[in-house]
Write a structure and sequence with these properties.
This is tRNA-specific adenosine deaminase. The protein is α/β, with parallel strands linked by helices and about 140 residues long. The chain is built from six helices and five strands.
Length: about 140
């Protein structure tokens, strides 16, 4: 199992969001080569602007582990985290973040520029299955127009 495998699992979560008419972002948290938590956007369903895929996945991971830090875990998320999610990920001290496609409009880099908002020890990788992640987002918003 590698980054593509786990990003495909995040895409499964994003597809669930898409099918529920939510912005199609999905996430999984991996520890020791196993998925310990999953999440997808549920902002509309829960009527909660904080119900992003990353927030749901890391909250589930904290509960699963009975801990507030994810230093040895990796978050796979289909779209670049927003500033709110970046803040939560900072405080989680997550070991690694892997995201599929950039979010030019709402991604954290729009605010932070080249400066990382994540914990100094967090490794960030991007571009894994970017085309698939981007296509799902484009299809969703094309249907909305």
């Amino acid at each position: 199992m590698d980054d593509e495998y786990f990003m495909r699992q995040a895409l499964v979560q994003a597809q669930r969001a898409f099918e529920e008419d939510e912005v199609p972002v999905g996430a999984v948290v991996v520890l020791g080569g196993k998925i310990i938590a999953r999440g997808y956007n549920q902002v509309e369903r829960l009527n909660d602007c904080t119900a992003h895929a990353e927030m749901i996945a890391v909250t589930s991971a904290f509960s699963f582990l009975g801990a507030k830090y994810l230093t040895d875990a990796t978050l796979y998320v289909t779209v670049e985290p927003c500033l709110m999610c970046a803040g939560a990920l900072y405080w989680s001290k997550i070991g690694r973040i892997v995201y599929g496609t950039a979010d030019e409009k709402n991604g954290h880099r729009r605010v932070t520029g080249p400066h990382s908002p994540f914990h100094p020890k967090t490794i960030v990788d991007s571009g894994i299955l970017a085309d698939e992640c981007r296509s799902l987002m484009k299809e969703f918003f094309a249907r909305k127009r």
